[in-house]
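S.,

Sequence below, as promised.
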Amino acid sequence: MASLPVGSLQPGDVSAATEVRAGLLNADVPSASDATARCIQQTVDDLGPADLWTLARDTAMTLDELAWGATATLAGERLAQPDPLDVLAAQAIVDELAERTPCRWGRQHTDAVRAALYRTLADLADVLLEASESTPTLLDWTAHDGGWRASAVIGGVIHHVALQKAEHSPSAAQPVWHRTPPSVARIAWQWRITNGPTGRTSHDCGPIPSALAARHAAECAITALAAGRCSL
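The prediction came back faster than expected:
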């Protein structure tokens, strides 16, 4: 696909276009985002079950993502009003996928994984778009209470940034094909930004798999705040 002019796509556009194409969202999306979503779809459609499984495993596809794919597949099959039992049917597809090898997948299983990969790769495209828009603000982090903290001045107001351990991810957010044994502790992180002398306004995000990724995300958030692209 030819390169697009700067600003043609905004973070979130590709994921939105993917949901529109799946019939789960009724909205007008930019033609560039629809073209990107279509390109992702065509690439995934060229893969057979074994390659789909490899890609899904290597992208650490979660139960939540797989459930989204199963729901999108069932929605595509029902052009009329969705069946209330679709939620149960989608869960059955997810359970079977988690237990079966690719050679035992049926059409619905394959379609569910494909749909989930559309969404996963679209989300990745949006993350890359967001990362390309700005350089993270390098903060001076100091260790504090088992985590880290830093601060930045934006518009004359001090913004405090904290990085702390988060609660473990729910089971639905765990990878389908790479399960962590119960005996192995998983440490996740979250960041929190507050401003003002009493921290009356705040925003946080998590859980994030690693401290490095959480720190990077917090620094990107500070950059976005400083540029006026978002607010607390």
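Helices lie at 13-21, 31-45, 49-58, 63-77, 86-99, 107-133, 211-226.

Coffee later?
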